[in-house]
Amino acid sequence: MLFEPQRKEYIDNEGPIRYLDGSGLLRPLDMPRRQLALMAVFVAIAALIGGVLLFNVLDSIQGSAARSQASVEENLAREVTYDLPSLPSLIQLDDASIKQSFADAGFTTYEPSPSEDGAGFELVKLPSDVSLAEAGLLYQQGVANLDAPDAARLLNGSWTFTVERENALGMRLRYTDFSSGGVDAAVEAAIAAEGFDVSTASETAVDEAGNTFRAGSIDVNGTTYSWRVSAIALSEVYSISGLPESATYVGVRITA
């Protein structure tokens, strides 16, 4: 059966021109009430589904942030001790004796890059409740790439000790202070922990890198050594969101 085109309706007008019938376009454009009611139901259902999805997403985000913060606080409240080494008591020991003293103290340590040339070494003391296997996985990611709970777990109770012997004898200790409450207090706490004489120390100052520091000298068995204690906001070292704003990064150095 051949397709027959729809017949066009025309209206007459004066003259030879004939116009198409446009009366159908003059009908009301309002939807019937029944269809309007059905559309309203669909809109309400869509709004309800969207609201539920939005609530679930927001609740998930807020819940995740709350859980992360709770985990950070829990890791910072752990009963771990720093057991900071006394640099003046180690400055005249050889590498083997230093490492043995750490082993005798029961420290769990990790040596990132073992040195065999006698030029010194670097060693990380782990928190007492963090195993070598767990620490290895965290360090493999890089401290700067850790989330706040993992960073708090790894940094709270740990420190890094470095010996330099290639040019001049020097020792350095670095750790994160979560308890002092600020850089000035962290400097004073480190000076007290190392047994340095604050009466002969310089006044508190800030160096070109933004570190707050004090410096002085100490006599060890007739030999004079220089020391320097500095601190800076941890956020200046690691951009890890969620750690306490008062956390500080402390460095202690003693040189011949």
From TrEMBL:
The chain crosses the membrane at residues 36-58. It comes from the Bacteria. Keywords: Membrane, Transmembrane, Transmembrane helix. This is Teichoic acid transporter. It comes from Enteroscipio rubneri. The lineage of its organism: Bacteria, Bacillati, Actinomycetota, Coriobacteriia, Eggerthellales.
